[in-house]
Structure formats: structure tokens, C-alpha cells
UniProtKB/TrEMBL annotation:
GO molecular function annotations of the record: heme binding; indoleamine 2,3-dioxygenase activity; metal ion binding
GO CC terms in record: cytoplasm
Stated name of the protein: Cytochrome b5 heme-binding domain-containing protein
Organism domain of life: Bacteria
Domain Cytochrome b5 heme-binding, chain residue ranges per copy: 632-709
Stored InterPro entries: Cyt_B5-like_heme/steroid-bd, Cyt_B5-like_heme/steroid_sf, Indolamine_dOase, Trp/Indoleamine_2_3_dOase-like
Keywords: Iron, Metal-binding
The species this protein was found in: Mycobacterium asiaticum
Biological process, per Gene Ontology: L-tryptophan catabolic process to kynurenine
PANTHER family (alphabetical): INDOLEAMINE 2,3-DIOXYGENASE
């Protein structure tokens, strides 16, 4: 057996690459530079710095291309080696900025860029042809000097594009979005900052060089204890990454802005290459090698392999070196001698899977909003169709790719050691399950064998383990006549996490979640804990879990107690206390309302205060799902659609429940945008995809149940589906334009570009074309009048906005007219929704055959709207008169 590991051999071979030209790789700094990159280039090349620093301002005024075309040609031959990575990033951002502004910001159609357009046509080159000498030639010379087969600028931007601002000495794990800023930004927006630093922080925390190296050393010496320690360390690290990086809330970051700015800016630079994605970070490639992934046949698996070939050469060599000693093979060989080794390996696989489940949820939410608001195709080439939207395709590809990482986790078997009936149908189970990284709030699927011989699986919450670690306590509900336990399997989605850093904790709980409350209170980061329970006293079975740091306070009406203690609640908020509300839906609803009232007694902006607490992960809700609220109130889906307006009350249907989620918007960890886009529709499908297994037990929407959705008659299902489609398109347009204006209040060119993209993608077939005619059975004469009027006006409006953008210097004079365009399209969508809802109601009462008699009058209203409002938009810029 060799005495030197493959990774050690690699590190020796690249030890002279101190500037990271082949990609940053070292045992001490992992994938990061030994020191942050220089913030400026030498004076001879300072124009590159000057131009890249001006990009954010030029982007907002539509002047990127006209200014970059005037960039002088600079020769990089004498540029010192220590500046090459920075110069590579600067020129890469200039090139990406030109391409994005030319194609996505319509700068290619500006009168000022006519000469550049003519040059592209004359040479038959790409959009980068006009800046070939100024940008492309020096850029290529720089990456060739570094010994790279391509620029690899994507990878550099993920690990070196930061200015470290912390007082503490520099170390990769200290780099976060809170203490650093982007070294070379383009948009200089909150969304751009969050996108880049989400990947930077994951990579900065991941010991992708030292951990595999230590594992290889342990395998060479058969140091099983050392391997277990490393595997458990990595597993816990991935859980921390999920909680502190991936799942951290910043609800002011816009998925719509991301989809129309950063996501488009990071599209592939050259034909045949992959666009930017997290796969340009080395973490996933190293982890896949560690866990022994061998299957890459899926759509995303193939992208991963193509991306791997685009990484810097030293990273590619490291990934190959990790794969030379697969951990999975070693575990399979030695698990009989060391069962803990297999436990630790599976723990790592589960934690890694937990990361991707959370990532899956976030990708779905972002892709849904981005695609619905106008992004037709992902950087990875995922492009939907009328039958299968892009977000559904992304969801399928993510599931197939996740299956390729499966390691065949076996189920844990356990006998029933003890069972305590604590309250009503609640149980405290004590099982001989070995502790291998269980954290307070972890959920488990417990296979139950009942006395009558039947079997079922129920979800339970991890509560506590005995000091010796041989027995673990689980809290569960709805379990009667338990004879034994057939299996215990960890569920990757969390129920509720304790603070990630030391903090005081206040927990409001009913008895259904009291065990979990005690587990959170006993966590090492809970400095002082007050558990406010809604009951007379603490169940005797849980007395041993109360320690000196935990104070239990009982009150039969917690909501009233909170209002009495409003001043104290306000003091706790100011002092950084973490709040948890745990219980059944009715309890959480009451406590949530009481907390908002208590906050409102000392703060005029209740919504903003609650939003800040959620973003800081200091206000946490857990809903233990029980039966539906006892209500006779029911709604038809079309009643929800016509009564919902994202500006006022927001209602949705989820799993047969009608939810008024207006006050939930401010505390939704995914932000309020996606819920506003779905307002007025049935969100069951989206909720189950976005929340996965967590939807079975955890979900704040259960707190906001307003009634029950009446079932849709079969003959009205097609029209109802069409109504939802119209509602979502309209909501997407309204929300998108509101966000573009809000995020770019003074940037008229960006606003105009957002409007241009939205109306170009306006679904004519749905809104006034053949699809609408087929659903409503419109006669040929009315259809031709409606479609002809609307299409002509729409075409002229697109031309008008394009003409305005061609002369950005005078664009401010057309602000009112552009705003009128937005309002007209919004009003058209709302009008169409109102008419469709009325047709549905009448058809429900009169039968399916009445559509032909009901629809014409409504279509006549649509035609009148097209003549008066849409027709007013169909004028040239020269003769434009606001309607």
C-alpha cells in the first residue's frame, strides 16, 4: 500500500502556484486565495479598473456598450503575475457586461450603437466582435499566460470576487456576505450580492481539500476513529450550511430581479459552453467523489460532467485525486469491523441529501418566478413548453439527479423500550437508537406495529437523548395501541432548529410540542430559556429534561399573557432574543396574532418588524397539523380568483383549504413575491414541490385557514384551469413590473427594458387569441374582431417601447406614457379575470351548454376595452397621446 495519498501528491506538484493560476488549492486555504486579491491593477492598466467600476451606472442608463466600444487597447504582456487573476475577472466582467447589455438590455438597437451593429453584420461575428481588440484579445492572452484552457472566470468569481471587511485576520471561513462586498460587481444590487455570496459562503465553509486529505490519510492507516470523526464533522457542516447559508432568509432579494438580471448576465459566454451555475464551485464535485457517485446519465448529471471539464486545471486534478480513494468502497470493506464507520458515512450522505432537498425547494421557487416573469430558458438549457412549463421540467431534472446520488440507505430497526402517555393522544417514545448527529427538532419516520397487527408510519420529533447515548426520546401524536417499532428513519427536512449561535430563547408552546420546546431550550446555544406553556403544569415524564438554564412558565391563556407583557416582549426583541411558537394550528394562530399586537404597541411598522425578525431567524413557527378548523365557510375556486388582488387581500387554495395569507406574506421565508404571483389560484402542486416532505407536518399556511374549497364540477375543470392560467400571467405581470419599478426607482431605462421584455412575452393566444376562443366557444366574427384589435394594438405598443429605448437620452420624457402601458395591461388582465369568473358562475348554475350564450356579452366588453384602452397605446412615438 502506498505511503502517500493522491491528494498529497497533487499538493506537492502545484506548490509553486502561489497565485492560483491553475485554480486555488491548498490544505490551509482550501479553494480560496492565500490573501484576498488586489483591489486595483497597476497604473498602466488602471483603465480596466475604471471602466469596470462604472458598469453599474452605465447599466442603469443604457450606456454600457457605447462606452465599452471606446475602451483603449491595452497590452497585458507586462502585467505582473500576482494581478493576472484579478485582470481575468475584470475583463471577464467587461465581456459579460457587453453581451448582456447588447442582447438583454436592447442596447444593440440603440441609435448610438449603429456602427457596432454594422461591424457585426459586416464581419459575420458574434456580439463581442466590436470589442474584440479591447477586451477579447487581452483576455485570451491573460488566461493563456495562466496555463488555462479557457478563462475559468466563473470559478474565479465564486472564490475570489470579494473584498474582505472583517477586523479579524483573513481566513476563508470568515468570508460572508455580511462582512464582505463584491470586488467586481456589475449590477451592484442586493440580489446580485446575495446570489454570489450564497455560493462563496458555501465554498468558504467547505473543507474540500483538508477533509478529503485527512480521510485518505485515515484510510491508509486504517484509522477508523479518525474517519468517523471526519465524516461526522462533514455531515454536521452540511447541516450548518443549510441553516446558516442556503436557508437563511433575505426576503427583500427578488427572484424576479435575479431571473431578469444576474441569471441572464451569467448565460454562456461562448457557443457550446455551459452558462454560470453553482456547478462551477468545486464543492459538489468533491462531495460526489467522496460519497462514491458513479451515475451521471441524467440531464443535470451530463451538465455536471461538462462543467467539470471547464473548471481550472488544478481543481480538475483534485477532483480526480479524491476519486482515487472512494470512501464508499472503504466503508463497504470495513463496516463489519467498525459499524460506527457505516453509521457516520450514512449520516454524511443524509446531510448532503438534506442540502439538495433544501436547494431543490429554493431552485423551484426561483425558477417558477423567473420563468413566469419572462425568463424563457435556464443557463443549463431547461426550456419549457405549453404542456410542461419550465419550472416543472426543472423539478423533474432535480429529482432524477438526486436519485443518482442515492447510496441505498438502510432503515434502522429498533425495539420499543418505553412509552409514556403525556397529553391526550401524545406519546413520548424511548427507543434504543444510537445517536449519530440527531439535532433538536429533527424529524423521524417511525414504523409502528399496532396490537391488532396493522402497520403504519408516523412522523415524530427528536426530543432528547440520554447522556450515555444509548436511548433517544421521540415525541409523536396520533399513535394508539403500539405493540412495537419496526423502523426509525431520519427525515432530511427539519422541523425546527435551535439558534445557530448563542442567544436567549423564549418558547411559546402547547403540550403537543412541549418536548421539542425542552429540546430547543436545552441546546448549547440557548443561553437562557423561558418556556411559556399553555397548560397548568409540566407533564411528569418531562421533568428530568428541565435544567438550571430553563425556566418553565405556565399560563392557561398565553395570548392574553403576551399582551399583558407587551413592554417586556419589546425589550426582548431589542436585546436579540430568539422566539419560537410551537403547537397546533389554532394555538399558533392565536400566539402569532398576539405577538403582532404586542409589537404594534411599540412599533408603527408591524410588518417590517416581523419581517426583520424572520430574516434574522429570530421568529420561528412550527405547526403540528391537526384536523381542519371547524368551519362551514366554503368557496368555489373562481370566487377566490375574482376576490383576490395582490395589493389587498391575498387568498389561495391549498389541499382543499382556503387560506387568507395576507398577513403571512411578511413572514414567508421565501418572500412575498411568489405568493403574490399565485394569489387567487390552487397552489397545492407548488406547495408540495417547494416544501417536499415538510408539507406533511410543517407549514404556516395551516394557521391561516379561512374555509374549505368546494369541489370543482368536472365539466368546469378545463375552464377553471384556464382561469388559473390567466390569473397567474396577470399576477406575474403586475408583480414583475412593481418589482422592477421598486428596485430601479430612478433608472428609467431599466424600467423600460423590464416593460419591453414583459409585453414581448405577453401570452397573446391565452389573453385574446385562439386558446381563449376555444375555451369560451367564441363565434368567428367576434373572435376576429377581438384578436385583430388586440394584436394590432399590442404590436404597436411593443414598437413604441422599443423606439423609446433606442434613444435613452430622451427616455425620461416618456415616463408617464410607459406607466400608462403598464396600467393598461394590468387592467386588461383584471378585467378578463372578472369576466371569466362571472362566466364560470353562470355556467355552474345553468349548465355547460350555457357557455355559448353567456360568453358573447363578456367578449363584447373585451372588444370595447381593446378599442378604447389598448387602442390608445397603439400609436407611434411621434404622435403618442396618453389615453
Amino acid at each position: 500500500m502506498p505511503s502517500t495519498t493522491p491528494i498529497e501528491l497533487l499538493l506537492r506538484s502545484i506548490q509553486n502556484d502561489v497565485y492560483g493560476h491553475g485554480g486555488f488549492v491548498s490544505e490551509e486555504y482550501e479553494f480560496f486565495p492565500r490573501q484576498p486579491l488586489p483591489q486595483h491593477l497597476p497604473a498602466q492598466w488602471s483603465l480596466w479598473d475604471e471602466y469596470v467600476s462604472n458598469l453599474p451606472a452605465w447599466y442603469r442608463t443604457g450606456q454600457v456598450c457605447r462606452n465599452l466600444a471606446s475602451l483603449p487597447v491595452l497590452d497585458p504582456a507586462e502585467l505582473p503575475d500576482e494581478y493576472l487573476v484579478r485582470a481575468n475577472m475584470v475583463l471577464g466582467v467587461l465581456a459579460l457586461g457587453w453581451k448582456y447589455s447588447w442582447q438583454e438590455m436592447d442596447e444593440g438597437g440603440q441609435h448610438a450603437n449603429a456602427a457596432s451593429l454594422a461591424r457585426i453584420g459586416a464581419t459575420g461575428g458574434t456580439v463581442l466582435e466590436p470589442v474584440h481588440a479591447q477586451i477579447m484579445q487581452p483576455w485570451q492572452a491573460i488566461w493563456r499566460r495562466m496555463g488555462r484552457h479557457r478563462s475559468c472566470v466563473e470559478s474565479d468569481l465564486f472564490v475570489a470576487n470579494f473584498v474582505y471587511g472583517e477586523d479579524a485576520p483573513y481566513a476563508p471561513e470568515h468570508v460572508t456576505g455580511n462582512n464582505s462586498r463584491l470586488l467586481v460587481p456589475f449590477f451592484q444590487s442586493r440580489t446580485e450580492h446575495r446570489f454570489w455570496f450564497s455560493v462563496v459562503e458555501i465554498c468558504s465553509r467547505f473543507p474540500g481539500v483538508s477533509a478529503p486529505l485527512n480521510l485518505q490519510r485515515a484510510m491508509l492507516t486504517d484509522d477508523h476513529a479518525g474517519m468517523v470523526a471526519q465524516l461526522v464533522r462533514l455531515a454536521r457542516l452540511w447541516q450548518t450550511i443549510v441553516e446558516e447559508v442556503l436557508a437563511s432568509a433575505d426576503t427583500r432579494v427578488s427572484a424576479i430581479e435575479w431571473g431578469n438580471t444576474t441569471a441572464r448576465w451569467t448565460a454562456a459566454m461562448f457557443e457550446g459552453e455551459e452558462g454560470f451555475s453553482g456547478l462551477f464551485s468545486p464543492a459538489w464535485h468533491v462531495m460526489d467523489q467522496l460519497i462514491g457517485r458513479t451515475k451521471y446519465g441524467s440531464f443535470l448529471g451530463q451538465i455536471m460532467l461538462r462543467t467539470r471539464a471547464m473548471l481550472p486545471p488544478s481543481w480538475q486534478k483534485l477532483i480526480a485525486a479524491v476519486g482515487e480513494m472512494p470512501v464508499s468502497d472503504y466503508v463497504a470493506t470495513h463496516r463489519a469491523r467498525c459499524p460506527e464507520l457505516e453509521e457516520a458515512y450514512h449520516y454524511l450522505c443524509q446531510s448532503y441529501d438534506y442540502f439538495f432537498q433544501t436547494h431543490h425547494r429554493k431552485v423551484f421557487a426561483y425558477s417558477y418566478q423567473a420563468i413566469l416573469s419572462g425568463r424563457e430558458k435556464s443557463n443549463g438549457g431547461i426550456e419549457g413548453t405549453a404542456a410542461t412549463p419550465g419550472w416543472e421540467l426543472a423539478n423533474r431534472h432535480l429529482r432524477v439527479s438526486a436519485a443518482e446520488r442515492s447510496t441505498g440507505l438502510r432503515r434502522n430497526r429498533a425495539r420499543l423500550s418505553a412509552e409514556h402517555r403525556c397529553h391526550r393522544d401524545s406519546r413520548l417514545l424511548i427507543l434504543p437508537v444510537r445517536d449519530m448527529g440527531w439535532l433538536p427538532g429533527d424529524r423521524a419516520a417511525i414504523g409502528i406495529e399496532r396490537v391488532d397487527g396493522t402497520r403504519t408510519t408516523i412522523l415524530a420529533n427528536f426530543v432528547h437523548r440520554e447522556p450515555a447515548g444509548d436511548h433517544t426520546y421521540f415525541w409523536l401524536r396520533a399513535a394508539e395501541n403500539i405493540k412495537g417499532i419496526s423502523s426509525v428513519e431520519r427525515q432530511p427536512s427539519p422541523f425546527c432548529r435551535p439558534p445557530s449561535r448563542p442567544a436567549s430563547v423564549v418558547i411559546f408552546s402547547d403540550l403537543s410540542c412541549l418536548g421539542m420546546a425542552l429540546a430547543i431550550g436545552n441546546h448549547e446555544h440557548a443561553n437562557e430559556t423561558t418556556i411559556w406553556q399553555e397548560s397548568a403544569d409540566l407533564p411528569p415524564a418531562l421533568h428530568p429534561l428541565v435544567n438550571g438554564r430553563t425556566r418553565v412558565r405556565a399560563d392557561l391563556d398565553l395570548a392574553a399573557a403576551i399582551l399583558r407583557e407587551a413592554r417586556e416582549i419589546h425589550r426582548m426583541i431589542d436585546s436579540g432574543v430568539h422566539f419560537y411558537v410551537l403547537g397546533v394550528a389554532s394555538f399558533v394562530r392565536r400566539i402569532h396574532g398576539a405577538l403582532r399586537l404586542a409589537i404594534g404597541m411599540h412599533s408603527a411598522l408591524v410588518g417590517d418588524a416581523v419581517r426583520r425578525l424572520r430574516e434574522q431567524r429570530r421568529l420561528n413557527f412550527c405547526v403540528q397539523v391537526d384536523a381542519l378548523p371547524n368551519t362551514d365557510k366554503s368557496f368555489y375556486p373562481w370566487n377566490i380568483a375574482t376576490a383576490t388582488d395582490p395589493k389587498r387581500r391575498v387568498r389561495v387554495v391549498c389541499k382543499g383549504k382556503v387560506l387568507d395569507i395576507t398577513s403571512f406574506l411578511t413572514i414567508h421565508l421565501g418572500g412575498d413575491t411568489i405568493l403574490s404571483m399565485l394569489a387567487g389560484t390552487d397552489i397545492t402542486r407548488e406547495f408540495e414541490i417547494a416544501h417536499g416532505a415538510a408539507s406533511k407536518t410543517l407549514g404556516m399556511p395551516d394557521v391561516f385557514v379561512e374555509g374549505v374549497a368546494a369541489p370543482i364540477p368536472k365539466h368546469l375543470q378545463p375552464m377553471t384551469d384556464f382561469l388559473y392560467k390567466v390569473v397567474r400571467y396577470t399576477n406575474a405581470f403586475v408583480v414583475t413590473q412593481a418589482e422592477v419599478q421598486q428596485n430601479n426607482e430612478d433608472d428609467i431605462y431599466v424600467q423600460a427594458c423590464g416593460l419591453s421584455n414583459a409585453i414581448e412575452l405577453w401570452p397573446e393566444a391565452t389573453m385574446w387569441g385562439q386558446e381563449l376562443a376555444d375555451v369560451l366557444r367564441i363565434d368567428t366574427e367576434r373572435y376576429n374582431r377581438m384578436s385583430g384589435l388586440c394584436s394590432a394594438a399590442h404590436k404597436n405598443t411593443v414598437a413604441f417601447v422599443k423606439e423609446c429605448m433606442a434613444d435613452p437620452d430622451s427616455l425620461t420624457t416618456w415616463t408617464d406614457e410607459l406607466t400608462s402601458c403598464i396600467r393598461t395591461y394590468e387592467d386588461y388582465g383584471r378585467m378578463l379575470i372578472t369576466h371569466l369568473c362571472d362566466i364560470l358562475r353562470r355556467t355552474y348554475h345553468d349548465g355547460a351548454d350555457s357557455i355559448g350564450q353567456t360568453a358573447p356579452a363578456h367578449i363584447d366588453d373585451v372588444i370595447r376595452f381593446a378599442q378604447i384602452r389598448l387602442g390608445g397605446l397603439g400609436r407611434s412615438r411621434a404622435s403618442y397621446v396618453q389615453c
